[in-house]
Amino acid sequence: MNHPAANSWSDPFGSNRLGLWLADRRDRKAGLLHRVAARWGWLKPMGERGKVVWIIAGAERDSVRLAVELLRAIRARRLDIRLVLTYEHEYPELLALLDDCDKTGWGYAPCDHPKAIARVLERFEPYGVVLVDTRQRPNLLAALAGRAHLLAVNVPGQIDFACERVYASNESATAIHQAPVADMHAILTEAQVDPNFKSLVNGNAERHLWWLHGASPGAADELAQALFAHAPQDILFVSGERPHAAVIAMSRWNREPPAGGSVLWVDDNKWLPGIAAAVTAAHLARFDAAVLWQAMAGGAALSRSPGMTLPKAALAEAVPEMADIAALWFSYRDAPIAARNQADTARRLFWQERRLAESVSRELVERVFEW
């Protein structure tokens, strides 16, 4: 599937000349000349000798994180090749993990203008290309057509271009040369979490903690009202958009137990593993693969909004559709064994996916080793 914003003037990595001119002007004013150079393909691999493998990530944090971990796994197995990682948004804390990788370069991606793509391919002369967790752009795909060593990893949508091997995360994807469907994000999920977070939030209080992800601010406010009307001492964590109602931002939380009826807005995803392990139940109003696996791994009962499609049909057992979230959560308060059984199902399916993803990941790295 092509990138939906490929021809938009607001896309700094697309092919629209007005958009690229505006992006160049913006970056020059900000002194980011390296972004301008990268946008037009003036990139060079590290080192002078060895085959080049180009790993292409997108703008999302999860895409860059997965690309970084795949690069590190490939580097550990293959020391002679030159590796290049490009991305559309920079996450310094993730890229710091590459500091000890020899013959490895990373930086902003080229735009999708044909001249930029032609220039970067001429300078890289890549022996292999790995597309990671991002919708691919049409001119790049056209330029890569016919290459023997092209891998697609967790690429969303249908893979309608030829690949040596497709590593799909969603069973709705169908492609020739497809590996067993497994979401690599499951490998990156923090599965063993310090349980002290719940005690930190509750102190000496006996109360339930709940987690809502991806809801609109208005929907989050409505759920908080319904929840606290019957459970005024409970705590609600909200990740995604900030609710309209008064909240405590997690980045400013003083680590003291919050007052009953507080809404804590998760403005940094570093808190999600602890939250997932502490809450009685969680609800996903919007699909996010990394959040889904973290919630399943955490050991809480889990639900999703009606109509949300899961990457695998078998997950519906652990993540049922639910419109009345407060009613479901109150039922879990009244029937803790049912909540525990639901959580155990989610955790079991998470570990099943993680083991499969680890196996598929090893196959991917071994394939690159054989190049």
Short description:
With 371 residues, the protein is α/β, with parallel strands linked by helices. It has 13 helices and 12 strands.
Record keyword descriptors for this entry:
Rossmann fold; 39% helix; 371 residues; six-stranded parallel sheet; 12 strands; alpha/beta
Description:
The chain has about 375 residues and is of the alpha/beta class. The chain folds into 2 domains: about 40-180, 3-Layer(aba) Sandwich (Rossmann fold); about 195-350, Glycogen Phosphorylase B (Rossmann fold, 3-Layer(aba) Sandwich). The chain contains 13 helices and 12 strands. The strands form 2 sheets. It has a 6-stranded parallel β-sheet. Strands 9-10-8-7-11-12 form a 6-stranded parallel β-sheet, with helices on both faces. Helix 6 links the parallel strand 4 and strand 5 (about 150-155). Helix 1 runs antiparallel to helix 2 (about 35-40) and helix 12 crosses helix 13 (about 335-370). The longest helix is centred in the last third of the chain and has 35 residues, at about 335-370. The relative contact order is 0.11. The model has no long low-confidence stretch (mean pLDDT about 90). InterPro entries: Glycos_transf_N, Glycos_transf_N_sf. It is an enzyme of class 2 (transferase). It catalyses: lipid IVA (E. coli) + CMP-3-deoxy-beta-D-manno-octulosonate = alpha-Kdo-(2->6)-lipid IVA (E. coli) + CMP + H(+). Pathway: Bacterial outer membrane biogenesis; LPS core biosynthesis.
